[in-house]
Every structure is written in structure tokens, then in C-alpha cells.
Design a protein that fits this description.
Blueprint: H1 3-29, H2 31-38, H3 40-50, H4 59-71, H5 73-84, H6 89-97, H7 102-117, H8 125-141, H9 148-160, H10 164-177, H11 182-192, H12 200-204
């Protein structure tokens, strides 16, 4: 049997268990504590893996990430922002545990503004490349219905690395999987209109 089909098939049952377990904990513990239980260990692993050039997630961890970053976009955003540069644990925790707070919204808006407007801001290339590879592995193991968000996250990181063609390819793939994926739409629109990250302005002058 094809290994990819095998992995996707076994991942479907795991994805359901992750989703059901997380939703139950949100009801019983509250959103913040559920996020601490399910996502905080993966966020710690993510930061650790971005700081070295080897190692990766287990199949179970990859499926869990795919589910959580699809069901809760605040967790996807925390992974993306941590991929661009090192962030304090407090800010990251606020992003995924208290996504509707004013402080969390301010962090997201600040980082988006820097990407599009701040020529002095340049993402950490090494972290971005490592994160892209990890997200590709998450996408490969994601069961049906959970591939689009990790794929779109790859697209955004590639766009931030000024690799617009590769970014557009992945954005199109994400939209083919989920035509409502707004992050993929943003990346595709930027790529098609020649909009590049603000940091590339320094390189053009």
C-alpha cells in the first residue's frame, strides 16, 4: 500500500480523537487551560526545533498540529510569528491562549504591519527555512480537511523569504483544498500583484 495513503488513513482517526478531546477540554477547563494542555507543549517543541538543524515531530504531533492550527487559527498564527523571529513566551502564550484579547490583536497587527511596511524588519532566514520544512512535513501527514492551513502557512513564510513564485504555488494548492482559506488568498494576491515584503526594499536600493 502507498505509504502516503496509509499515513493519511491512520491520521484520520487520530485527528478525530484530537479534535474531540480538545473540544471537551475547552468545555471542561476553559479555552486558555485547554490551549495550555494541548498546544503549549507543541509550541515549546516548535521553538526548540527552530533553534537547531535536525530533528522533527512525530506523526502524532504532526497530525495534532494540523488539527489545532486548522480549528484554531490563533495557534496557526503563533507558529508563523515564532518562525519569523524569536518571541517572548508571554506574547506567544497570549496569542494562542487569549486570541480575542486586545493585546493579542495588537501583536498580530504589529507583525503584519512590519511585514508590509517596515523596511528595517527582516525575518530570521534560518528559522523561516526550518519552519517551512517542518510545516511541509505537517502538511504531508495531515488527514483530509486539515491540509490547507499548514500549506498556507508555508506559503506565507515563503513570501516573507521573498520567494513569491514558490509561495504562490503553495497558496494555490491551499486554495484548491479550501477556497475559503484567507491566508492563502492574501499570499496569492500579494504574489500576483508583485507585492514583496517590506524588508526587500533595502536590497533594491
Amino acid at each position: 500500500m502507498n505509504d502516503m495513503v496509509d499515513t493519511r488513513t491512520t491520521g484520520t482517526g487520530l485527528a478525530k480523537r484530537v479534535r474531540d478531546g480538545f473540544l471537551q477540554d475547552r468545555r471542561e477547563l476553559g479555552p486558555a487551560q485547554a490551549a495550555d494542555k494541548w498546544f503549549a507543549p507543541l509550541m515549546d517543541r516548535w521553538n526548540g526545533l527552530l533553534s537547531r538543524d535536525e530533528g522533527g515531530f512525530s506523526h502524532e504531533e504532526r497530525v495534532t498540529l494540523a488539527v489545532l492550527m486548522t480549528e484554531y487559527l490563533s495557534m496557526r498564527d503563533a507558529l508563523i510569528l515564532a518562525s519569523l523571529h524569536e518571541m517572548g513566551g508571554g506574547e506567544l502564550h497570549m496569542l494562542y491562549a487569549k486570541p480575542h484579547s486586545m493585546e493579542s490583536a495588537a501583536v498580530v497587527m504589529r507583525e503584519l504591519s512590519r511585514a508590509f511596511k517596515d523596511a528595517d524588519y527582516q525575518p530570521d532566514t534560518r528559522r523561516g527555512e526550518r519552519a517551512t520544512a517542518l510545516l511541509e512535513s505537517v502538511t504531508a501527514d495531515a488527514p483530509d480537511g486539515y491540509e490547507a492551513q499548514p500549506m498556507a502557512s508555508c506559503a506565507y513564510l515563503l513570501w516573507m523569504a521573498d520567494r513569491s513564485t514558490a509561495a504562490a504555488v503553495r497558496a494555490l494548492k491551499a486554495l484548491a483544498l479550501d477556497d475559503d482559506c484567507s491566508l492563502a488568498s492574501l499570499v496569492l494576491a500579494a504574489s500576483e500583484h508583485g507585492i514583496r515584503p517590506a524588508w526587500t526594499e533595502r536590497r533594491r536600493h
